[in-house]
Sequence to fold (644 residues):
Amino acid sequence: MDKNSNFKTILRNISSHKDTKILLILLGILVFSSLFIRNFNTWRNLRVILINVPIVGIVGIGVTMLMISGEFDLSVGSIVAFGPFVMLSLVNTGIPIYISLILSLLAGVFVGFLNGFIVTNWNIPSLIVTLGAAMIWRGATLILSQGSPSTIPKHFPLRKILAGELGKVPVQFIWFLLLAIILWIILEYSYYGNWVFATGGNRMAAEARGINTSKIKIFNFMIVGLLSSFAGLVQLSQLGSIFPLQGSGMELSAIASVVIGGTLISGGAGSIIGTFVGVLIISITNNVLILAGAPGYWYQLFVGLIIIVVVIVYSLRRE
Amino acid sequence: MKKTSFWVLVLVLSISMVAAFSLFDHRTGEVDAKEGITVYFLVMGMAGDPYHETIVKGARKAADMYDINLKVFYGEADIKTQVDQLETAIVAAPDGICFYLSDPEAFDEPVQRAVDAGIPIVAISLDDPEGSAGNSRLAYVGPELLESGRVIAKRMLQYFEKGDHVLVTAEHAGMVYATLRYQGIDEVLSAAGITTELLDCTHERSEIISRTSTYMIGNPETKGIIGVGALVTADAGAVIKDLDLKDKVFVGGFDLNEDTLKWIKEGYIEATVDAQPFLMGYLSVQQFYFYYWAGFSFMSIDTGTGIIDKENVDKALEFPEPLVR
Fold:
């Protein structure tokens, strides 16, 4: 009897967990694809997914933190290009590579800080501020690069560390997993995570409880900036070169992954696991469509459909 | 407090901008405003796209050499934006306009208005399918897209047999450059009994590599990849290397950049068509100088469909300046 009730309790806990639905959706997609899509179940194909997912994924988990606290960032795509060009420009002026790398990450943090500062200090919607920021930092990238692509320095010491292979697993996916675990722990098990949820859930109530919501938002913007710059460096290491247009449109892919993962656009609810799975769902959907021979113009339509369906499912669940 | 915050922010931003621009080695591409000829240079694509930036670089070189005041605008791959920019340029009444004829209908009226207003107007990189019969532009400087598709397909034929399948990749499959090049490619390959499929890959490089790789995994019988643009060509080489398909799948494409040249040298790409975009920009702007200096007529110039492959890649690689070759 005790064993049965324990089992029922475990089942109830699993079924009521906020990430269960999205995990079940992913499982369903994986089972369907494995059974019906030729070549899906090969290591070669899985590797393509594991390489494709991390760039948007690393940006997405940062965006998750920010959206839970009630804000958006449309400048992430620009930072993905800006960060690496900062590093390459510094290296060209003779600054040692490790210092250049750190400064490029700090450049991302700085951009995030500026975004957060302007949003919180003047109460301007983040959609507008970061839209402007997206243009500013894309413009800065074009000025830095003079429109030219740039190749990675020949002896860039971190190339294999950022985008090599560990066994057969792409290292960039391990970075994505690691960063997701860190942010998940912070969000779900720390005071800071509580403050993030409180800030996005009900800002006035959070303020009344003594939480400095402005600082929380600024810090989340800085996390997004840091992770976007890092994602750009990973992409640079993977591709060996960077074009000034890199990252264009990535903000929408990141937001799509976050929304599919269950984070509320209004803030106050969401999860890192959800975003992790959301990124996988989008990537696997594109992958399956290509393997199945669907015309290329269908991809966006399907991703859009998934977003709508998932959002409807989440809203029904909340009712 | 908010006022103080505002001035602190302004100070921080100002110091950052000054530090950034003094620290970095940057080349100023803008030509200083001078007296004399002013030419509006309307680029179809997005700033930072290597193909368009090479055209702009050629234009700036000519502007610099011939003392022309060049104003560059980017149309962000949107026809409406390009038409609006052209209309604005006509109102500004410059000494000349260069633009991409990226739609066979949308530019007819504005171009006629420019001609009627006495503004010399030259099309570059993209032309009306009917040439001067379809549009009043004074000249066209650039490649013949349909023909360039045929050229690369003919070059790649040696690697394929009847019944083979070839993937054609594009950054933006619906755009004129992609459809015309693909048409030329398909024309030649279909005549040889080879099937083709056009895959839209976007211009985001991770997505290009992911979609191309997935296609190759899902269609292992694919014998070749032909990219119709700079990014898809370069990244096709990366895919061949990543999937270990060298000498099993053969890649051709368009345009030059460091990555494509590297892949040609290493044998992952067989050949690319060099439309010589630098010369498109240079020769179009140069003509305005000769027009105003001595009344020379504008000339249509085919900038070529030269093939770069392993035989001549070293020459291109030797050239040190980016966005020229």
Observations:
- Chain B has eleven helices and twelve strands.
- The longest strand of chain B covers residues 38-43.
- Residues 2-23 of chain B form the longest helix (22 residues).
- Chain B touches chain A through 50 residues (CB under 8 Å).
